[in-house]
């Protein structure tokens, strides 16, 4: 299952048309579109709006069943961005490998595990529109290749539910920080022109999702759930455990090791859980 988050209706419209998505009129909080294997939500502008819509989309629609709904999906933030670097032609799509929140200084790193056709780049998320003159005058000092207003909010919210290799940001260069009048048609054309590459990427991600969803047996999932409970793992630590287990199986082709020692451990403080998780990490990554 692929979840897509866009900020603007004009960013969403080419995607909705390409995948023949249908408006879900039952959703009163956001414009929400559905297909057989895809959800798309339009968040509105800004990192807070993007974070809220992202969390809503995942929380409302993930199926927590025996097949492992969370592990069998990926979420992608798609939209236009600005850059001062004119080596990127207008309409160039980039896959983001680092997201920086300008206000907090926090950095987020998608875990890109698949081959893709994009150039990779970094993006810095601002609360306000960044103008070319702000950068050239020195009032704003850019820390990344691209700038936008949503990526850090999107990533921070998605990471509460999903592992880094399930979270992607694709941004299409829409301007050189010189836009005076916002042009919806131009934005839609930028997204539309990138959709062939995006579609190929989505197909690869869907293949990874199918592998991620099927690689663990039901008994292995139950064993890992017991470990999570016994070690009192946080949401992030639980995602790390599942990710390491899947990678182990994909790399070795063998069943998971016996984790009964960890499932029978009852930790009293979080530090004990962290130490036990590190032992599991060594067991899975270096065996």
* CATH architectural arrangement of the largest domain: 3-Layer(aba) Sandwich
Q: What's the CATH superfamily of the largest domain, by name?
A: Nucleoside phosphorylase domain
- Sheet bearing the most strands, described? 10 strands, mixed
Oligomeric assembly: single chain
Our count of helices gives 9
What is the string of helix and strand elements? EHEEEHEEEEHEHEHHHHH
For the record, the CATH class of the largest domain is Alpha Beta
Global shape? globular
- Secondary-structure-based class equals alpha/beta
Report strand %. Answer: 15-25%
Radius of gyration from CA coordinates: 20 Å
* Domain count: 2
- CATH topology description of the largest domain: Rossmann fold
- The whole-number mean of residue pLDDT values reads 89
Point out poorly predicted stretches.
Answer: 64-68
DSSP strand tally: 10
Terminal CA distance reads: 32 Å
InterPro entries: Nucleoside_phosphorylase_d (IPR000845), Nucleoside_phosphorylase_sf (IPR035994), SPL (IPR049539)
Protein name: Nucleoside phosphorylase
Organism: Caldicoprobacter faecalis
GO molecular function: 4 iron, 4 sulfur cluster binding; DNA photolyase activity; S-adenosyl-L-methionine binding
